[in-house]
Design brief:
Structural class: alpha+beta
Shape: globular
Order of helices and strands: EHEEEHEE
Strand order of the largest sheet: 1-2-6-5
Oligomer: single chain
Helix content: 10-25%
Strand content: 15-25%
Largest sheet: 4 strands, mixed
Radius of gyration: 14 Å
Length: about 140
């Protein structure tokens, strides 16, 4: 999934069916889990926290207030079966990066597509209301 995100190409990316950015100013956004489910149920994707999408579709970093706490909160939640039906991630699927020229740190979450027998990946212990897909954009 390296081709989905490289820090050096940050300015060339826009959101699409395999890339999603979230500011994460107040901690983990609730919509993070909808996106995790959607990416897992389709082709996989990358979720980038600490980034805002501008009106023209370009991205700008907003940074994370406490990246290490956010990372711990993420791992605690994704390993909670009441939050997510299956954790598809390995340790190296979640990385933090310092953005050159700023004090900002972003967190990149690489979500693989789930295997057929793991689907559907759903959230909040709700198979019918907590299953998401990402089609087109």
């Amino acid at each position: 999934m390296e081709e989905l995100f490289e820090l050096a190409k940050f300015d060339s990316y826009k959101e699409d069916n395999r890339r999603e950015v979230k500011k994460a100013e107040g901690g983990l956004p609730n919509s993070l889990w909808d996106t995790y489910s959607a990416f897992a149920n389709c082709y996989g994707g990358v979720i980038i926290l600490g980034v805002k999408e501008n009106k023209d579709g370009s991205w700008r970093t907003t940074g994370l207030k406490n990246p290490s706490k956010l990372k711990k909160d993420f791992w605690d939640a994704i390993n909670n079966r009441k939050k997510v039906s299956v954790n598809l991630l390995k340790d190296d699927d979640v990385e933090t990066f310092s953005v050159a020229g700023t004090d900002n740190v972003i967190m990149v979450i690489w979500v693989p597509g789930a295997k057929r027998e793991q689907k559907p990946v759903y959230i909040n212990d709700d198979l019918f209301g907590g299953t998401f897909r990402r089609n087109w954009e």
